[in-house]
Amino acid sequence: MITKEANLSIRLDKLERQLNFWRVLVVLSVFVCGVSIDTQLRASPTRIDATAVVAQEFDLVNPSGRVTARLAPLPDNPDSPYLALKYPNDQAAISLGVESGSGSSFSLLSNDGHPRVLLGEHADGPAISLYDEDDKLRVAANAKGQATQIAIYDKNTKRIWVVPSN
User: Fold this and answer.
1) Which of 15, 92, 148, 152 fits as disulfide partner to 161, beta carbons 3.0 to 4.6 Å?
2) What's the pTM?
3) Do 136 and 66 fall within a single domain?
């Protein structure tokens, strides 16, 4: 017959074995979770190949999260798409847009947002304008119907040379 002390000792040994089992299981679970989290944090973004991506706005961001380019409709005209490539100071450097009423335009801008080259296509013909560092119009060319011309301006925006069409 087993005495009470022997029975208690057997039960205590069994309880200690179960406690050790659960300790090992908890340590292994924490280790597996840590490895899984580390793997997810180090994983590169998943590449998705698709035939179409649909969104109202696209932002291209650099590794630090700064928006370097944006493709979105104009805020005041949702039917007019607009693409802007940006300088590090968040000013547009190149813009390309289509306005539903007036036509398309292409602009090269200085790093403070002032125009340098404006190219526009309108119902009555294309036009190009070149600006100097003081935001003054220096060269303008347009091919609007019968009034095609090229004009060159001085620093005071006074026309100094005009080439009219034939």
Assistant:
1) 152
2) 0.64
3) yes
